[in-house]
Design goal:
By secondary structure, this protein is an alpha/beta fold. It contains 22 helices and 16 strands. It binds phosphoenolpyruvate and magnesium ion. Phosphoenolpyruvate is lined by residues 299, 301, 338, 433, 454-457, 504-505.
């Protein structure tokens, strides 16, 4: 008999609803016993380690092959694991311990990996700390070879099921038969964990960050995974099950409609064609961007390519080049680093009393010109490969912009001296995300090629509300009339000065606001990849005339609440109520 219904809240990382039976993947975590070896065995032990590296590499290669033939999604994750497995620095660290402490290679490996793991885990950045999971996965891979243990069998799911596990390696996630896996519910991880990224790429509903959820299960229970809200429900009662079944039917038919419309233009009923691009943080997302028919990448957040404050120009160059190749003739807007405050990656950084008002983003770039110039150089080096543009974040006054542009000029002069091929007229734009830019938008427009409105920050700076502080979350009001007025100023100044204006803030991922922005005159959007189809549909169902009417009405309201109520009613017909 089924036990009582249990509901657990996790982080929704891949949309969709899965209802099915739990297949539980046990933790079977391998541990290396501390084993000493004789002095004379050192060389043989290191040869054994090298053989294990070779075998683990072969296994990853096989996974890459399998992965590729089934679905066109990125295999960079597995390639990066393969690189880490073969990393000479790892080999050297293991060798040092085997030679000096006379330990077996698996004991040495665990010691080395534990050190890496701790360092990663302590990093402030969520993205970096989630990479700690990769370290564990690589350790487990090598241990399974060294200890002769077979990995968990994920290839042979007998029937369709929801996979529940404490953690999943990227290889495991990729190896599942897509037809058999209904959804994932995983204890560890966050939005940027690789399981999350791969689940999104495979379009399998997934919830992660469920703590020790898997511990309480035996397998065989009925479970609902809600990849929209992050809820996971074990042993749902009849009423809950019925509700979710009908939700699933609605979503599925809606999804089919969206898929059919992927290649259609983002054109209003009265013939205005708009541009929908995508925001990405990780290269792995580019495939979804292309698949969902985006016109390009309107915001490539580059913070994740930084290690602390330091920058490896070649790594940036390779990442940008790769992105441009995958995009082919679509445009690519690379934003220079926006570190600090919510995107803090800096180890040992001085604590600032008000990080959002402190030395973040472009301010940090100007404080360390050599790092900034190296990033700018990497962007210029790919500028001839396609339609590449560069964007400066967090600009708050004209001096700052001019200083940044003079550094950019120096980079171009250096590149000329070095005889490098680059596009001297590459477009340079700024994020309009500080109210001072909106208020002085005409002056800024005269000195840049485009604006991209960053509502995530614009809302926080206009209303003095910390964007990550839940306590004041109710004051974070994108529909506040003060915010709408600032947005209007930016759009209109852009038009007056004949420069492109786009918006890459989360706000326009919601059709509700996107239509409002259309009415304010915006013709270009950049949204999270999975929001593209819904946004396109909303655009295709509306007229510019309607949008203009909606914007004019909202501008007359005194409060955000009035705008929201009005928008909700007007846009109900655009999208099904779920
Ligand atoms: C914004 O501020 O709206 C934006 C798109 O940038 P980020 O969220 O990266 O600060
Ligand atoms: Mg911002």
């Amino acid at each position: 008999m089924a036990g009582p219904m249990r509901v657990k809240q996790g982080t929704a990382v891949s949309p969709g609803i899965a209802i099915g039976e739990v297949v539980l993947l046990g933790r079977d975590e391998l541990r290396a016993p501390r084993r000493s070896i004789a002095r004379g065995e050192v060389d043989a032990e290191l040869r054994r380690f090298d053989r294990a590296v070779a075998q683990a590499t072969r296994e990853v290669d096989e996974e890459i092959q399998r992965f590729d033939s089934r679905v066109q999604i990125p295999h960079q994750v597995l390639e990066s694991h393969r690189d880490m497995i073969r990393d000479p620095a790892l080999r050297a660290a293991v060798e040092r311990i085997v030679r000096s402490e006379h330990l077996s290679s698996e004991s040495a490996l665990s010691q080395v990996m534990e050190g890496f793991y701790r360092r990663f885990e302590e990093m402030e950045s969520k993205y970096i700390s989630e990479r700690a999971q990769d370290i564990r996965e690589i350790e487990q891979r090598l241990l399974s070879v060294l200890l002769g243990k077979r990995p968990r069998d994920v290839h042979h799911l007998a029937h369709q099921a929801v996979v529940v596990a404490h953690s999943l390696t990227p290889g495991e996630t990729a190896a599942f038969n897509r037809e058999k896996v209904l959804g994932f519910a995983i204890d560890v991880g966050g939005r940027t964990s690789h399981t999350a990224i791969l689940a999104r790429a495979l379009q399998i509903p997934a919830v992660v960050g469920l703590d020790n959820f898997s511990d309480g299960l035996t397998g065989g229970e009925t479970v609902v995974v809600d990849g929209y809200t992050g809820l996971v429900i074990v042993n749902p009662d009849r009423k809950t099950l019925d509700q979710y079944r009908s939700k699933t039917v609605t979503y599925q038919s809606y999804h089919q409609v969206l898929v059919k419309e992927i290649r259609l233009p983002a054109e209003t009923v009265d013939g205005y064609e708009l541009v929908i691009a995508a925001n990405i943080e990780l290269p792995e997302e580019i495939h979804t961007v292309v698949e969902w028919g985006a016109a390009g990448i309107g915001l490539y957040r580059t913070e994740f390519l930084f290690e602390g404050k330091t920058l490896d120009e070649e790594k940036h160059y390779r990442a940008y080049r790769n992105a441009q190749r995958l995009l082919r003739d679509r445009f690519l807007v690379i934003r220079t680093m926006d570190l600090g405050a919510d995107k803090s990656l800096q180890e040992g950084r001085e604590e600032e009393p008000n990080p959002f008002l402190g030395c973040r983003s472009i301010r940090l770039s100007l404080e360390q010109p050599e790092v900034f110039k190296a990033q700018v150089r990497a962007v210029y080096r790919i500028s001839r490969l396609g339609d590449v543009r560069m964007m400066l974040p967090m600009i708050s006054n004209l001096d700052e912009l001019r200083t940044a542009k003079s550094m950019i000029r120096q980079v171009k002069e250096d590149l000329v001296r070095r005889g490098e091929d680059f596009e001297p007229n590459m477009k340079i734009g700024i994020m309009a995300e500080v109210p001072s830019v909106a208020l002085m938008a005409d002056q800024f427009a005269a000195e840049v090629d485009f604006f991209s409105i960053g509502t995530n920050d614009l809302v926080q700076y206009a209303l003095a509300v910390d964007r990550v502080n839940e306590r004041v979350g109710h004051l974070y009001q994108p529909a506040n009339p003060a915010v709408l007025r600032l947005i209007k100023m930016v759009i209109e100044a852009g038009h007056r000065n004949r420069i492109d204006v786009s918006c890459c803030g989360e706000m326009v991922s919601e059709p509700l606001y996107a239509v409002l922005f259309m009415g304010l005159g915006l013709r270009s959007f950049s949204v999270s990849p999975l929001a593209i189809p819904t946004l396109k549909r909303a655009i295709r169902q509306t007229t510019m005339r309607e949008a203009a009417g909606i914007a004019a009405t909202c501008l007359k309201f005194d409060t955000a609440q009035e705008s929201l109520e009005f928008l909700g009613k007007r846009l109900e017909k655009l999208l099904p109520k779920l």
